[in-house]
Design a protein that fits this description.
Helices cover 50% and strands 13% of the residues. By secondary structure, it is α+β, with helices and mostly antiparallel strands.
């Protein structure tokens, strides 16, 4: 179901019940107004000078008419012998050629309802007038406890029947005129108590309905054009922009679609960049792994041939093979870390990490390779425990990369030191410093770039992949740590991890909670 048809059905569903309620309310109001008019006319007739006397003098023929729309008549009730009986008046009207059952028109040409007719009853509700109708049970029951008795009001009765009937109790309670029944009409088929007296008021409703449908035409057209534009953009991979037309709600919807399209385009572009970087990374990593793997295979072949010939084990070949295996393991570990931190929202399992223990593990892991490369590796940690809120796996890999970088790019007889200390403001500093050839000052800022290697590094280790320091920088950023590179005065490279530490009480409570 389209929007225009839905709006039309909704308008009809709201308008029709509203019109019905208004018409029914108008009918009830017309009945109430007619009843009040009849009561007022009856009391005026009976309480004016001589009114009761005329009724009691001839109750069988007493009565009168109230022409609708002209107010209560001013003439007296019928005197004896006067032809005021309703049936005689109806007969006179027929003799003048007036249609039976249709009241004569008023001076303004509008039809009128049946004129009001009065009938007198005594306190026992008996009437001397043979034309007086029998009183209904609702009127009989109501007049016993009230001054005026009317039929129970009903919306359906008020709409279907235009006849109005009231029974009025007189101020006196004796004689043949103690109760008076007044009958009249609300002019059937016409409005006027609440709504305008003619059905011309329906014209604005029809005009409003047509205006709503006409006004919705351009809006529906804009929505359809916007829908088609969004479909075209989606089919083209959101490469095309969605046109924005206007500042209203449809325009805001177009802006929302365009903003969503820009976000999708940005995400697709980022995805393409990640995929391209991943393909390049895999290609480079395959190349970087194949070189040490080939070297490792050569050393192992030499060892096997020597063992087959009964020669002594070549310690140099064995040390070289172990170094290549260690390097391959570092590459694999870095691949696992990059897969984790390259995720859109990497999940960090943060907990208080004992940095002294972490440093000892890193030193123990790298001492064998340092000895094989003839590099002295030393470390120092404070006596009191120092804790950092971090993901222990990622942070340990970052520190390992920096230490391994200092060892691998050092020279034989060089030194590498790992120093952990607390500094002012509840912070810590983990410093890795070496006395190797170092890095030119203009290249320090580029060390954290993915795949970057200085000229000196390419010379010393042509098979390096330039990934370790990049991972260290990414891990530091995820933990809110500073990673600072500097060239010491004596040469070499100095790398500092600086950040906040966790107080001992918090660390102890967290460890107890884990236990």
């Amino acid at each position: 179901m389209n929007l225009r048809l839905r709006l039309a059905l909704t308008t009809i569903a709201v308008t029709i019940p509203m019109v019905v309620v208004l018409v029914l309310f108008d009918a009830v109001a017309r009945h109430r107004a007619a009843e009040e008019a009849l009561v007022g006319y009856t009391l005026t007739r009976m309480q004016e000078p001589g009114g009761r006397d005329r009724c009691e003098a001839d109750p069988a023929h007493w009565g009168g008419e109230l022409p609708p729309g002209r107010g209560p008549p001013q003439r007296e009730g019928r005197e004896p012998g006067e032809a005021s009986d309703l049936r005689e008046r109806q007969g006179e009207g027929r003799e003048r050629g007036e249609p039976r059952g249709r009241p004569p028109p008023l001076d303004d040409g509008r039809p009128r309802g049946r004129p009001a007719v009065l009938f007198a009853y005594d306190a026992a509700l008996r009437s001397a007038n043979p034309a007086a109708p029998a009183l209904g049970e609702p009127l009989v029951a109501a007049i016993a406890t009230s001054e005026v008795a009317t039929w129970p009001r009903s919306w359906v009765r008020s709409w279907v029947s235009a006849e109005v009937e009231v029974l009025v109790r007189m101020p006196w309670d004796s004689g043949p005129c103690a109760r008076v029944l007044a009958q009249g009409s609300t002019v059937p088929g016409w409005l006027g108590a609440v709504l305008p007296p003619t059905r011309i008021w329906l014209t604005p409703l029809v005009a409003l309905f047509a205006a709503v449908l006409l006004a919705m035409g351009p809006i529906v057209g804009r929505i359809r054009r916007l829908t088609e534009a969004v479909r075209r953009s989606a089919s083209a991979g959101y490469a095309s922009a969605v046109p924005i037309d206007g500042d209203d709600e449809v325009g805001q919807l177009a802006r929302a679609f365009e903003a969503a399209g820009r976000e999708v385009r940005a995400q697709l572009a980022a995805k393409d960049r990640r995929e391209a970087a991943l393909r390049e990374f895999l290609a480079n990593t395959t190349h970087d792994v194949m070189i040490p793997l080939t070297v490792l295979q050569g050393h192992l072949s030499e060892l096997i041939e020597g063992a087959s010939a009964g020669a002594a084990v070549d310690r140099g070949a064995l040390v070289a093979a172990m170094g290549e295996a260690h390097y391959i393991a570092a590459i694999v570990h870095n691949l696992a870390v990059m897969a984790k931190i390259d995720a859109d929202a990497p999940r960090l399992h943060r907990e208080p990490v004992a940095m002294g223990v972490l440093v000892e593990r890193v030193l123990a892991r790298h001492r064998p390779i340092a000895r094989r490369l003839q590099v002295e590796l030393d470390g120092a940690v404070p006596e009191s425990p120092l804790h950092v809120d971090a993901d222990v796996t990622l942070l340990e890999q970052a520190v390992s990369n920096v230490v391994y970088n200092a060892i691998r790019h050092n020279r034989a007889g060089g030194h590498v030191a790992v120093l952990l200390e607390g500094i002012a403001g509840d912070r810590f500093r983990l410093r890795v410093v070496d006395d190797g050839p170092g890095v030119p000052a203009d290249e320090l800022a580029q060390l954290v770039e993915r795949g970057f290697r200085s000229d000196a590094a390419r010379t010393r280790a042509p098979d390096g992949q330039g990934l370790g320091l990049h991972i260290a920088a990414r891990v530091a950023a995820l933990h809110g740590l500073e990673l600072v590179f500097d060239s010491p005065p004596g040469g070499g490279l100095q790398v500092d991890f600086i950040g906040p530490r966790v107080c001992a009480e918090v660390a102890d409570s967290t460890q107890e909670a884990h236990l």
